[in-house]
Amino acid sequence: CYLANKITETNYHCEIKSTPGSIYNIEAIRSGELTIGVLQSDWQYHAYQGTGRYQKQGAFSELRSLFSVHAEPFTILARADSKIKQFEDLKGKRINIGTPHSGQRATMEMLLSLYKWDKKAFKEVFELTLNEQVKALCDDRVDAIIYVVGHPNSSIKEASGACRTKLVHVFGDKIDKLTAQTSYYQKAIIPGGMYRGSKGDTITFGVGAVVTTTSKLSEEVAYQLVKSVFENHEEFIQLHPAFKHLKKEAMVVNSITAPLHKGAIRYYKEVGLIK
Questions:
Q1: How many other β-carbons are positioned within 10 Å of the β-carbon of residue 69?
Q2: Low-confidence residues of the chain, pLDDT below 70?
Q3: How far apart are CA 59 and CA 48, in angstroms?
């Protein structure tokens, strides 16, 4: 919003709205409550195509991408004393699966379906918010908490600093097949040493975060917004630690699972980022 509000060519004003996550954002964009929202690439794909949880609703064909930002690995943080080393070890444990309408909850439900598990596979299941789950982990109310998030992440740093924790691997034949068969999931590594208690690399999979709108947004506003971000790229990547390694070329193609907005296309063609 900081960069968007520097635009003088339009009358739009950007305000930040905190939401539960991707699933909420999709419905808020559909209803017009949000003009622009950040979506996980997997749920952007399913909403645009009308597949998965959106099969009954049908394709949200007006959905449009502006640009992608950071990768968001599926991240499990467990108590160091929980004996959880990989995803399969979550069975019989106390876990937080996230709030309804959050992207992390939807991705966890996808994994439960992939592994043919239900909630009975766990000792206890919680639906805590991102802020609540950190305290629950360190208070020994849960054994593991879940994020779909870019790294480094302040909440994970907070948890790993407040109590003894470790990141958990998510890999194996099922994950290999998942990443091979889909365009929106990729294998991912969370570098070792980023958080206390996790010295080695953590193997997992992930999605991308995509700044998304609809075809109803005017071409000029989309053009000016994208132009503001890309022409202030060095300033933009300082806004969040996860943006540090963003390259302009990657932001135009990585994790984009709904068509680019025509205003974005206009700018990218002007500067040679697409032909």
A1: 23
A2: 1-12
A3: 5
